[in-house]
Design brief:
Length: 223
């Protein structure tokens, strides 16, 4: 039985697709492209920050990536549209299966944690918005480490803050690159594959694959 569970946040707990809906309501027919480019650039800029060693916080990166995405989608990003999209990012809803899965897990005494590219302020804001304070300890934002996943440092920092060893901790993420990073650091990886995508990342396959968080409590008991 696992003793701790660490979660990625965006796309795993926090429903990033809400950004697509808001973008589409602002720019009919362009929202999907804006959303996709925004998310891609966000990660590209984060990884550039880590690889160059020139740290930029994730909120700055998120805003810069939005500027790029709007230009690429050929839409005029007014000040109010920018504020609306960034505010939506801060207040994303969680996926409908999150609370239902977390409640029994927290109730059974497991340590639940978050390790994210987001800053701690961004994460706290979204956690508060969803009334999930008290579920996660620690919540580790990238501004604490100043290095982005999937570099080893964030996962090592997580390991130091957990009472369980990485081998007794499930690391749950929707992203293949995050599965790879957590696996290298010795966590038991769970790929949350909500959309039934193929696994093609060379090398590190996840230890487990689930289609929704409802599958998590039985997995915790089995592992
Ligand atoms: C996270 C995103 C990038 O780290 O999934 O929360």
């Amino acid at each position: 039985m696992a003793s701790a569970i660490a979660f990625d946040s965006y796309g795993t707990l926090f429903q990033t697709e809400r950004l697509r809906q808001v973008a589409e309501s602002l720019y009919p027919g362009r929202g999907d492209e804006l959303f996709r480019t925004w998310r891609e650039k966000q990660l590209e800029y984060a990884w550039a920050s880590t690889l160059t060693g020139a740290y930029h916080d994730f909120w700055t990166i998120t805003a810069a990536a939005l500027t790029y995405a709007a230009a690429k989608a050929n839409v005029h990003l007014t000040g109010s549209a920018r504020r609306r999209l960034l505010q939506t990012h801060l207040t994303l809803p969680v996926y409908p299966d999150v609370r239902k899965a977390l409640t029994p897990l927290a109730g059974s005494g497991l340590q639940l944690a978050i390790l994210s590219e987001g800053t701690l302020t961004m994460l706290r804001c979204t956690i508060r918005q969803n009334d999930l304070q008290g579920y996660f300890d620690p919540v580790i934002g990238s501004d604490e480490i100043r290095t982005y996943k999937p570099a080893a440092q964030p996962y090592q920092a997580l390991a130091l803050r957990l009472t369980a060893a990485p081998a007794d901790t499930l690391f749950v993420t929707a992203h293949a690159w995050d599965v790879a990073g957590a696996g290298v650091s010795g966590f038991r990886t769970v790929w949350l594959n909500r959309h039934g995508e193929p696994w093609t990342l060379p090398g590190a396959a996840p230890d487990s694959e689930i289609r929704g968080l409802a599958e998590l409590p039985p997995l915790v008991r089995a592992r």
